[in-house]
């Protein structure tokens, strides 16, 4: 069997042929405060004001979505900017929405969630995406200090 070479090509189970499959509309709500919008902002047919509409596929990664947000938001291009992703979806048992964080990416740094796809996050077409953006100066220094002070104040109270 000399001269015979076997090549096995691995296909990701959630990959989509983007030439043949039509993209869907993903409604993305971007919060520049570093915190997700409140879930009540999504109830009763309402949505937050800061909406970005993206046509994409279920194999889109969190890093790919962050790149699209950075195209329209120059402030988010700074190295060290953190993107925290959450799915907002209707509760099947009640007429309200629920929110579930699905991952985080950081501009200029490789991370564990960069290649997580919408399919891997159990995204369903019709769900919303809520992205909280934190600039490096807001989460590197100030937020940790605030958390420590808050924690210490809580611990010093008599019970």
UniProtKB/TrEMBL annotation:
InterPro entries attached to this UniProt entry: SAP18, SAP18_sf
A GO MF label: transcription corepressor activity
Gene Ontology cellular-component annotations: nucleus
Pfam families hit by this protein: SAP18 (PF06487)
Signal peptide: none
Keyword vocabulary terms for this entry: Repressor, Transcription, Transcription regulation
Similarity comment: Belongs to the SAP18 family.
PANTHER family, sorted: HISTONE DEACETYLASE COMPLEX SUBUNIT SAP18 (PTHR13082:SF0), SAP18 (PTHR13082)
Protein name (record): 18 kDa Sin3-associated polypeptide
Organism: Oryctes borbonicus
């Amino acid at each position: 069997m000399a001269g015979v070479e076997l090549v096995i090509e691995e296909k990701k189970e959630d990959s989509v042929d983007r030439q043949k499959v039509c993209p869907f509309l993903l409604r993305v709500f971007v919060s520049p405060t570093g915190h997700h919008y409140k879930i009540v902002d999504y109830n009763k047919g309402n949505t937050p004001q800061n909406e970005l509409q993206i046509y994409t596929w279920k194999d889109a990664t969190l890093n790919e979505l962050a790149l699209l947000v950075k195209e329209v938001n120059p402030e988010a291009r700074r190295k060290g900017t953190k993107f925290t992703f959450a799915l907002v979806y209707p509760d099947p048992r009640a007429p309200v929405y629920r929110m579930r964080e699905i991952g985080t990416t950081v501009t200029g740094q490789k991370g564990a969630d960069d290649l997580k796809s919408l399919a891997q996050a159990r995204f369903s077409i019709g769900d919303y995406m809520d992205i909280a953006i934190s600039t490096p100066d807001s989460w590197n220094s100030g937020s940790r200090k605030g958390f420590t002070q808050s924690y210490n104040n809580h611990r010093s109270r008599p019970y």
